[in-house]
Design brief:
CATH architecture of the largest domain: Alpha-Beta Complex
CATH topology of the largest domain: Spore Coat Polysaccharide Biosynthesis Protein SpsA, Chain A
Largest sheet: 8 strands, mixed
Strand order of the largest sheet: 3-2-1-4-6-5-7-8
Structural class: alpha/beta
Order of helices and strands: HEHEEHEHEHEHHEHHEHHHHHHHH
Radius of gyration: 22 Å
Number of domains: 2
Number of strands: 8
Amino acid sequence: MSDLDSPQTQEQIAEIGSADLLVGVLAAGDSNGTSAVTLVRDALAAFSKPPKTVVIHNDGDGSSEDPKGPDAKPDNSFFVVRDRSLGVNSTVATMESVGAAYHSLFAAGTKLGARACCVVASNLQTVTPRWISQLAQPVLEKDFDLVTPCYARHKFEGLINSGIISPLNQALYGRQIQNPMGPDLGCSQRLLQKLNASRASMNPMPLARLAPEAVRSGFQVAQTQVGARLYPPTDWVNLSSVLAQILGPVFLDMELNAAFWQKIRGSQSIATLGETAPVFEETGAIEVQRMVESFQLGTRSLQEIWGLVLPPATLLDIQKLSRLTAAQFRMPDPLWVRIIYDFALGHRSRAISRDHLLRALTPLYLGWVASYALEMELLGAVAVDERLLRLSRDYEAAKPYLVSRWRWPDRFSP
């Protein structure tokens, strides 16, 4: 049980009674003393009429203080609930713990009857008051039901989202959302109630179902430019676990919503608020040689598992790629898209343990990342958007393949 579910916290929420806005801050204050409470207070200045607000934030060391000071007069429109259990930025945090934090915050928002719930999970070193107001204000003042973030592009950061989550979501549900799983977001009470009533609530990871449920229910979705995000370090050692924990809920949601997404053709842009931030020029290098070697090792050792879900033609293409040197290595996007679709189909058919299957995707993912890195190394940062747009188009172009194999799996057995 988290502190948020404790009798003491429940009593605090009951005493507050109701609120217009709940802001949950999952990251602790940074080394420069950035306070979640200060950020939210400053963010409220952007509202035409400051809403009654409850802040629930991670106070890991118990040192955070209300910046208004101990002698300040009581404020009946701004309340703070401190919770030491909400931290999710650690590289060892599991998706289950992340999901539990969101579930707890959404439950608190529902109990308070908050018209909007905003969650900030990114490192507070780059979060600004405008970041928070940009996520919450469109829900309260413009009647949007889901507001997702657009971060300043990084060429080599967030590649699970760029290479899988975002283009897959776009192809399935027909909305061009840059970061459908946040992790920073704003959502309406209507969407939270719909999630609670939907069979998609079977999915333990709420971030995987927010955007699909909003689109499926005809709710208003927008995205907003929030600026630069400080990404947690890539956990290469546990990458297999990370992929399994992220993709498992996404593929489960595909299964739950199959009757809906099979009818979708093409995609549409959504309202994008704010000015586009420049692309970041990373100075670090990606270890392409090691990635290609991992791909080659997987090709030698995982043929039996891959053969349960990948067609012979795809396996042959993978074997051809494994003979290339790192400098020559390029994985065509259409091949990568078919691999993702085939693994989603394998997840549905339970050909083997779902966790085992998703972990077996790791060498193939590293192969795509290596190919992408080699290509982008020769291109400027401004080419990132166009590169990822081409990938999204390939996901959409291959969707008939996914639909056919989903509807008639016996005709396409590997």
